[in-house]
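Why does residue order matter? Because the sequence determines the fold. Keep that principle in mind as you read this record.
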Amino acid sequence: MQKKIAIVLASTLLAGLAAGCGAKTDDQAGKSAAGSDSQQINLRMTVLPDDLETTKLAYEEFKKDNPNINVQFETIPQQQYYEKLRLQLSGGEKIDLFGGNMDVFLDTGILEPLDDYIKKNNVDVSGFGPLYDGLKVNDKMYGLPYRKSNYMLYYNKTLFDQMNVPYPKADMTWDEFRELAKKMTKGEGAGKVYGAYLQQWAQTWYVQAAQTGASIIDKDLTPFKKALQFRKDLEKDGSIMPWSEQVTTSAHYNSAFQKGNVAMNLIGDWHVAQLRQAEADKKISFDWDVVPIPHPEGVAANTSLATPVSIMINKDSKNKEAAFKLLQYITGAKGAKLFASKGFLTGYTNDEIRKAYVGDGTQKPKNIHYFVEQKEYPEYPLLPGVKNIVVGNIYLQEGELALSGSQSVDQAIQKIGERVQKEWADKYAKDFKASKK
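Structure:
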């Protein structure tokens, strides 16, 4: 009996010593938590409303191999998303990681640089293509893109068939597009058929300048002058709805194209879902498809713009390793395949992901494959203030004055250059620089 008691006491003592040697502080536990199945980690993540359900699905797959990482998902209505999230982050709310346009947050100082995490975890970044370097600011990476938006040319096959005109080509210059738009324009008044529709956003006229690799904050804006003049020439031809009429009638690319009297519509990948839904609701009866947007002379066919949407980590997060583990999964091959299967263009791509996006061929558009074969330039430099100041104010306002006839194209471009320097460069250019293409 004494021998048994001695054995039990010895075992208890050894167990106590082992527990004491293995004990960790809260800080130490947090550092190793991402790799521990027993240490429960709680993360808080905010995502855009349209991405919430698919992000949750990706997390459920991630959790199968990481049962110790729990995530509380939140979203904010689209119209208030960026303003409210910036306030939350600057106010110190414990949000570990979040999604959105990276440039909106660069001036807050809240973003955790990801370079060391990417290197430490041997992250394969090849699938991001040119977008990866395009996301670097001051030679640092602050987010990885899980999806993106690209432009495409949608066309009404039924109208082309009725007018016995060949469908738009996959390799078509802007001059060829102009001629085709004129050919497809007929009639007058409410029943007029327009050869094309360009939404009244600045992007739909400066897209052809950006296709050459030019930047909207360049000092030489010659390509943008040509692009704005081209937009005015289309109006002069009568082949697109005049900007003034678009404004007074509150015209919109989606309803305009669904009406059935627009032959070609230049707009983003999200229009696919809108048209599929319209067909399901029996709101349209015409046939439709897509081809790459027209390109400038000397630029490769199927060159487009991409607006990446990234996942970022809060530098004040107490669980950065676990947060990066989830970020890496969602933005990497496995997460991208799931997003692609739900109809999202993804930042990361490979043959398997392309197949997931294209599907089995039973859904329109027939030529959806063009979306995953594009060469892409960022729509604008991903720097603080470029989107809201340069795109949302300067290009929009000065372009509209030119399109309304209140100033010439030359005057508009001159003012754009002056305002970019005064309203953006003087404020941000000295502190932020994007990677060169």
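The mean pLDDT is 90.
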